[in-house]
Structures are given as C-alpha cells and as structure tokens.
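Quick one, probably user error.
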C-alpha cells in the first residue's frame, strides 16, 4: 500500500474581522496565550478576551512568550493551564506564541510528560481529552496555525527542537488580516519571504502531491503579487489578506510535503549568526533554485505557469523590491563577519546537510555541496554547476 496523508485543521476561518468568530465557540473556560506586547498594544488581546466572554466563557491570559520560545516558558504556561483548567486554548500572536501554546497544551493534558518524551517524531500522546486549540496568527509566515510542527528551544543546551505530530495541528485557525496589518515593513518582508520558501520548497519536494502542488502554486502567485504591496503599505488590508492566505496555503502544502535545502541551510546559519529565519531563506532561495533545477523539471514547469524565464532571477527581483539583501555579506541586522563565516563553514555545512529538511530536497546533495551553496550565497555568486 502506497499510503500518503493529507491533513489540515478542521476549520479555517478567514477574512477581515474574523477575530469575532471567537464569540461563537462553545465552552466554559478559555486561556489566551500570547507573546510580549504587540497583541496587547494594538488592542487585539482585549478584543479576543471580550469575544470569548461574549461566548459565556471565563477567560485568563498567559502572556510573555518570548521569540524562539523556551522549554521553561512552555512549562510555566502548562502550569497555568493545569491551575485554570480551560477547555479552549486560544493562541494569538506570531509563530513563537502559537508554537509555545501547542506544547503547553500537551503538558496540560499530560502533567507527567517531560520534554524529552515528545522529541521523537510519533511520540506525542493523544490530545483533546481536556481542551481544543484555536490558533490566531499575527504574522503571515510560519503557518504554525496550520502545521503539525512546533519549534521549542532548549536554552541550556542551545538547541532548537522541532516537535512533529499531527496531534498538535490546531482545531481552528482564524485568519484575520487586521492582525498582520500592524507588522512593521522588515518583519513583513522577512516573514513573507519565508512563505515563498515554504511554497517553492513544497512545490519541488520529493514528496509533493497533487494536493500540495495546488496549494503551493496559489501561495507562490499570491506572494509575488501582494508581498511588495504589503511591505510598502502595511495598512492595505487586501494585500494583507492575500499574504495571510498565502501563508496558510503554503503551510498546508509544506506540513504535508515537507521542505528542502533552503530551510536546512537557513536553520543552521540562523543558529550560528542569529540571522532571522525568513531573511536567511530569502537570501538562500535563488541559489538553491539554481542548484535544484538540474534535478527537477518542476522549476521549469513553475516558470511556464508563472510566465517568467528565470525563477531564481524573479526571487532576486522580489528581494530587491522588499529591501532584502542578495547575499549574506550585505546583511546588517546581525554581524556576518567573513572570517567567522569561513571558520564555521565546515561544521555548519555538515549540520545543515544532516537537517531533516534535506531528505525531501529534489537534488541529492552532500556536505561539500552545501558548503559551496553557502559560499555562493555569502559572496553572491551564481550557481551553474
Ligand atoms: N510551527 C511551525 O510550523 C514553524 C515553522 C517555522 C518556524 N517556526 C518558529 O516560529 C518562530 C517565528 O515566528 P514568527 O516569524 O511568526 O515571529 P515571532 O512570533 O517570533 O515574532 C517576531 C516579532 O514580531 C512581533 N510581532 C508579531 N506579530 C506582530 C504584529 N502583528 N505587529 C507587530 N509586531 C508583531 C513579535 O512581537 C516579535 O517581536 C520561531 O521560533 C520559529 O522557529 C515555527
Ligand atoms: Fe520557514
């Protein structure tokens, strides 16, 4: 039997003002889980609380989830849930808040569970015995609202763990474009290029299917058309809605088809230099498209559908439009020192090659190839080998 899965949340609610959907949930108690400040500052947290109260629920808030959430934060949130005993967990914010809430949920359902117990894929126990999960993303990027993934950092060991289980796929995703409309331009650009990376990598993945292709293709079209507008004019709600949809569509594609070398290399250069995930993806994408096109017809097929000659060049053009540098050497958000780059290159390349995303990349690679790709992307040299 050649069995393949395609799984997504049961309910995806989308459109302007859909935060109000919270007022239709049925339950007794809800806990809102959010990040640092933005959801509070822009009034979305209070609105969400009011909608849940309108639904007749008692509501409490767990806030302060940090970017790249830690095991400690997850344990604190799970404790708050065990004390309050909610039947709805409502995560609102960026990928970090959503990811943290997913694992708090697991520890709430199973207080005796330890973080080590769930690292192995397939080890997550059955959830939904105590609560169901709503995800409301405020960035248009990670698609955590749709995925079976959560990324949690063990701050003591300096390791980011991807937790993978269909159990943590949310029950309801609410996509209200008013939330990402408050993102500043550089976060919009970085998270938006992450969406494009998800969609292009799912499209060329060795486990792509007709289901994931349809979603990935639409996401790619939406990003090319709407990301420059969302970056230039953040309050353009039509562009924000298109990017929010693109993020979730790409998420549905990659949670089922997986990713490729762009993410493998982005994860490890992010670990070494602290460069933002979406920014690393944006820079790497054109070079890895050049590398991959020798091994798959899907790049040429995409160019034909989009009516363009050169996908790598089109991604570079898009990077320019949204003010993303074309090589790592020109990154300014963190120091990307050439000497350090050369020093860490071998180790970083080996780690990137070992990343799980490498498995579904269309071109069979090696740690040596990965090092050459890193160099090309650092110095801005086209790949034609
Ligand atoms: N679950 C998954 O499938 C998946 C996939 C990829 C990455 N991740 C993880 O997701 C995390 C990154 O998530 P992210 O890119 O959404 O960023 P984030 O949640 O870390 O937020 C980035 C910054 O943007 C701010 N912000 C978020 N929404 C805003 C808004 N509407 N207005 C103004 N500011 C806003 C946040 O406060 C924060 O300072 C990382 O931990 C990454 O490892 C998860
Ligand atoms: Fe990503």
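Nope, works fine. Designed sequence:
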């Amino acid at each position: 039997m050649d069995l393949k899965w395609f799984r997504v949340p049961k309910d995806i609610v989308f459109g302007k003002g859909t935060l109000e959907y919270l007022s239709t949930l049925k339950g007794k108690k809800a806990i809102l889980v959010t990040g640092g400040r933005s959801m509070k500052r822009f009034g979305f947290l209070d609105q969400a609380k009011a909608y849940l109260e309108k639904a007749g629920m008692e509501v409490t808030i767990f806030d302060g989830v940090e970017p790249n959430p830690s095991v400690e934060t997850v344990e604190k949130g799970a404790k708050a849930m065990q004390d309050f005993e909610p039947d709805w967990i409502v995560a609102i914010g960026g990928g970090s808040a959503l990811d943290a809430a997913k694992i708090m949920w697991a520890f709430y359902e199973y207080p005796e569970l330890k973080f080590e117990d769930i690292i192995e894929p397939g080890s997550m126990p059955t959830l939904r015995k105590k609560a169901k999960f709503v995800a409301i993303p405020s960035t248009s990027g990670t698609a955590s609202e749709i995925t079976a993934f959560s990324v949690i950092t063990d701050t003591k060991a300096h390791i980011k763990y991807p937790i993978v289980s269909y159990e943590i796929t949310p029950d309801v995703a609410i996509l209200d474009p008013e939330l990402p409309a408050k993102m500043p331009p550089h976060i919009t650009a970085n998270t938006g290029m992450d969406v494009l990376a998800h969609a292009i990598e799912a499209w060329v993945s060795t486990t792509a299917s007709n289901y994931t292709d349809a979603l990935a293709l639409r996401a790619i079209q939406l990003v090319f058309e709407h990301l420059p507008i969302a970056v230039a004019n953040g309050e353009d709600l039509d562009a924000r809605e298109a990017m929010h949809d693109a993020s979730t569509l790409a998420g549905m594609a990659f949670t089922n088809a997986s990713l490729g070398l762009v993410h493998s290399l982005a994860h490890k250069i992010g670990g070494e230099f602290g460069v933002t995930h979406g920014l690393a993806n944006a820079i790497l994408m054109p070079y890895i498209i050049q590398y991959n096109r020798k091994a798959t017809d899907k790049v040429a097929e995409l160019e034909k559908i989009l009516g363009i000659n050169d996908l790598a060049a089109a991604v570079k053009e898009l990077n320019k439009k949204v003010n993303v540098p074309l090589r790592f050497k020109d990154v300014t958000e963190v120091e990307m020192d050439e000497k350090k780059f050369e020093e860490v290159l071998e180790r970083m390349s080996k780690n990137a090659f070992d990343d799980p995303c490498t498995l579904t990349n269309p071109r069979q690679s090696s740690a040596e190839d990965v090092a050459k790709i890193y160099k090309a992307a650092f110095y801005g040299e086209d790949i034609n080998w």
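Residues 35-36, 38, 67-68, 93-97, 99, 138-139, 141-144, 147, 149-151, 179-180, 182-183, 187, 191, 277 surround nicotinamide-adenine-dinucleotide (ligand 1) (CB under 6 Å).
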